[in-house]
Amino acid sequence: RPGLALCAGCGGRIQDPFLLRVSPDLEWHVACLKCAECGQPLDETCTCFLRDGKAYCKRDYSRLFGIKCAQCRASFSSSDLVMRARDHVYHLECFRCAACGRQLLPGDQFCLRERDLLCRADHGPPHDG
């Protein structure tokens, strides 16, 4: 469909012999498909992520929109093991008691008070209700 498509990047008509299509309905000039954050060209050799009509490289998409550790606020890599407490996610090394600093391990009892994790020794016995 060269000549009929409009570039999602610059808005111009695509008359080039090649275009890049991301998702079923967004097309770009080869030179226009770049990460909205860092400007890295995004072509058929790399992964492209879309958000609100903008294209991002994997690194910037993860940094801007990915889940972050509730303690250190850093992103997670695909190989990271995580711990969860309600809707909070933590790196294993960040899953520590806020009072004594002891690392909490799978199976340990803990309390989540506001944003603070507390081990059993520091939060005391469970309250009724």
TrEMBL record:
Record keywords, A-Z: Developmental protein, LIM domain, Metal-binding, Zinc
Entry protein name: ISL2 protein
Lineage, uppermost ranks: Eukaryota, Metazoa, Chordata, Craniata, Vertebrata
A single GO cellular-component term on record: nucleus
Residue span(s) of domain LIM zinc-binding: 5-67, 68-129
Organism of this sequence: Pluvianellus socialis (Magellanic plover)
GO molecular function: cis-regulatory region sequence-specific DNA binding; DNA-binding transcription factor activity, RNA polymerase II-specific; metal ion binding
Signal peptide: none
Cited InterPro entries: ISL1/2-like, ISL1/2-like_LIM1, Znf_LIM
Gene: Isl2
Pfam families tied to this protein: LIM (PF00412)
Entry's localization field: Nucleus
A GO BP annotation: positive regulation of transcription by RNA polymerase II
Tree of life domain: Eukaryota
